[in-house]
C-alpha cells in the first residue's frame, strides 16, 4: 500500500512521525519550505497599539480596500466576538466563527460566505486549515499568528488556484519588543517581500522570548447598549440554526 501526505507546511515533529511509522519514507518540498505561495502579496502593517488595529480596518473600509470576500483572523474567541460587534456597529456585512459555535452554525456561516451573503468573516485558528474558499482576495491577521506555521496556513486562504491574493498582518509596538514577529520577518525576507528597515535587524535564529498567548487589550469602542443588542441578535440567530 502506498500513502501520500500533503500539507502547506511540514514541521520537524510531523516528519519524525512519518519516518517512524512509514516504510521507505520520502519527503519532497516544492519551493521554499514552510513558505506562502508566490501569488500572495504579504505586508506587515505597524498600527502602534491595539486601538490602532480598529483604525486600520476602518481605514481600509474608507479607502475602499476591504473588497469582499475577506478573512480576518484573531487570536481568541473572545476577541472574535469583540471585533464582530465593532464591525456590525460599523454596518459591515460580517459574521464570525469560533469554538463556541455549533457545527450547524459554522456550516451556515461558511455557506453564506461562499455565496457572497457574508462579506467579511472573522475567525480563530479553527478556520486556518482545511477549508478551501474560492476568490478570497484579502486575509487580515488582526493579531500576529502564534507561529510561522500558523501564519502560512492563515494567509494560504488566499492566492489559491492561480489567483493573486493579499495578506496584511497588523503588529504593535509590543509585538516587536516581545519578539512575536521574528520568525515571520525571516519568512518574508526569504520570500523577497518588502520589509521596514527597522525589522530587518532582527535575528531569526535568536530564541523568541514570548511563547505564551499574548495578553491584549479588549477590542472596545462601541456603546455598551449596542453590545448587548448584538449579543441578543446572535443568540436569536443561533437558536434558529441549532
Layout of strands and helices, then pairs:
Elements: H1 12-21, E1 40-48, H2 51-62, E2 70-73, H3 77-89, E3 94-97, H4 103-114, E4 120-123, E5 138-141, H5 148-155, E6 165-172, H6 173-177, H7 182-190, H8 224-241
Parallel strand pairs: 1-6, 2-4, 2-5, 3-4, 5-6
Protein name: RNA helicase
EC number: 3.6.4.13
Organism: Rhipicephalus appendiculatus (Brown ear tick)
Describe the fold and architecture.
This protein is of the alpha/beta class and 242 residues long. Helix content is 36%, strand content 14%. It contains eight helices and six strands, in the order H-E-H-E-H-E-H-E-E-H-E-H-H-H. It has a six-stranded parallel β-sheet, with helices on both faces. Helix 4 (103-114) links the parallel strand 3 (94-97) and strand 4.
* Total count of strands: 6
Provide the structure class. Answer: alpha/beta
The CATH homologous superfamily name equals P-loop containing nucleotide triphosphate hydrolases
- Which class in CATH terms? Alpha Beta
Radius of gyration: 19 Å
Number of domains: 1
Shape: globular
**Helix content class:** 25-40%
Span between termini: 42 Å
Going across the biggest sheet, name each strand in turn: 1-6-5-2-4-3
Strand fraction: 5-15%
The run of helices and strands is: HEHEHEHEEHEHHH
Which architecture name does CATH use? 3-Layer(aba) Sandwich
Q: Classify the fold: give the CATH topology.
A: Rossmann fold
Largest sheet: 6 strands, parallel
| Overall average pLDDT | 82
Number of helices: 8
Low-confidence stretches: 204-210
